[in-house]
Structures are given as C-alpha cells and as structure tokens.
Hints:
By secondary structure, the protein is an alpha/beta fold. Helices cover 51% and strands 14% of the residues.
Amino acid sequence: xxxxIVGTGKAGSxxxxxxxxxxxxxxxxxxxxxxxxxxxxxxxxxxxxxxIEAVADQIPHSARYVVAHVAGSRGLxxxxxxxxVGSMHPLAVLPSPEVGAxxxxxxxxxxxxxxxxxxxxSSLKGRMIHLSDEQxxxxxxxxxxxxxxxxALLGHVQVIAESAGLSLEDFLPLAQQALNDVSTLGVRGxxxxxASRADMAxxxxxxxxxxxxxxxTYVALANAAFVLAEQRRLTLHx
Length: 238
C-alpha cells in the first residue's frame, strides 16, 4: 500500500518506521509539503489535533485515497469534504521513531471510517476497537491519565525525593511493585499506605514535611486514595 504521512514529529516518524517495516511504501512529509503527496492509497495526518482540519482542507479531494488522522479525541468531522475518511489512534506512547514503531506493532487502535484503515491496522498485527464520539473523548482522557498524568505523578515523586536528598530512581522499584499489584489485585486490592487505613496523623506529618509546591498534589491524590479505601470497605461489607 502507498501511504503518505503528513507530520514529521514523533508520531509521524513512528508510524513511518512501523508501516515501512510492515511492507508498505511510505512517504513522510512536512505539513507544508503537501504538493509532494505522490500517489497514495492513504494520506495519514500526524499533525497536532488543532491543525487537522486546516491541513486536511489543503489536501486535494479525491476518491482514490483515504484521508485519515491519528488523533485520539477527534472524530471524522475535521476531515469533512473528503470522499473517504478515517482515523486510527494507537493506545501506545511514542517517545521516538524506533521505540514508537516497535510499540505500534500489536498495539490496540481506536479506529473509525473507511475499511482501508482496518487493513492498515491488521498489517501492524494490531487490535481494533470502534467507539462512538462520546466514548472517544473519554477513551482519550483515560489514555492521557494513564500515560501523561502517570509521568506527572513521577515528577511529583522526584521533587519530594530530591527534597529529602534522595532520587527518583530510589523509588522506581516501589512504583513498579505497585503497578504490578494493580495488574494482579486490581486498584482497590493494591492500595496500601496511610490513606488506605485513614491514618490522618501520618498524612498531616507528610504535608508538614514536603515542599509547599507539592502539597496540593499530595492532598488530591490522598483524597483519591480515601475514595478507593472506602469503596473497598463497602465491597468487603456488602
């Protein structure tokens, strides 16, 4: 299949590497190089979400090819006017072309639109889900929390650790243990620590000791842990 990818950032480069590895003829171009689309079967937009509609408007209309994007929270309205449209968003973090390409193989994709998109995902040995517009935004919000907010959480850990003369690396094994426990026990079963046992004295001591800049984040997460602990208690006594 001839695939032209518009967007040379991490996502576009990851897709280019993965799709070329799957046997497709791939052309990777910048969004201001639309005169060099070639003769594609698929034009895949890997541009910022807010730029999808503007870039799609600059692509000549033709029933010969599908115009699709890789944005997780956007539907097909941004591609209106094109005869054949689609979307394919991978549930994967794409930090570099090499790592991203590896993760795209066998990934879970949210797909919509033309059946050619299903063929592209299948060539990557990917799994597919089809979502409504309402589901799609919530799906993407969940993905952002699972990946981006998780990284932000570890940034919170890093600041507190360094304020104690330690490092993030000292606590990564603990974080990995907790993640493994969630995989095997579920979030309620994996919860430990002062919030899980309503130990307010320890929580207050924590708040007094950590940098002021980190206290609001700590409180928000402790409150979330309180909710999980209460849900577990109600489940055990139901």
